[in-house]
Amino acid sequence: MASKIQSQFEDFLPIMADKLGGDGLISELCNGFQLLMDGDKGVITFDSLKKNSALLGLQDLNDDDLRSMLKEGDFDGDGALNQMEFCVLMFRLSPDLMEQSPFLLEEALQQELRDFHY
Hints:
This is EF-hand domain-containing protein. Pfam families: EF-hand_8. The protein is mainly α. Helices cover about 70% and strands about 0% of the residues. It has helices at about 1-10, 15-35, 45-50, 65-75, 85-90, 95-115. Helix 2 (about 15-35) packs antiparallel against helix 5 (about 85-90) and helix 2 crosses helix 6. It is globular, with a radius of gyration of 15 Å. The N and C termini lie far apart (about 45 Å).
């Protein structure tokens, strides 16, 4: 299952990271989370993922794939994805992005420090 989802993301997330930098990529991932989440619950549930998956190009995933995606990213076992779980899952699904993540983190921290000093 993961390889099916990986093929959808691995070409795009590293490109986004290169163009947007660490902060920009995290911001875009947060926007993606907002598109997929259940507005009342503030998390991505199976129903909200199924309803909104086409917005992120995931319309070809069947119910089992969607459940597997939720299960793979659900670290606290509540059956849903919070924003942090979603962002971590997106990084994990992109091997190229995982290799870049230490550099993106360093870049984001440096930007925070620059912003803090101004």
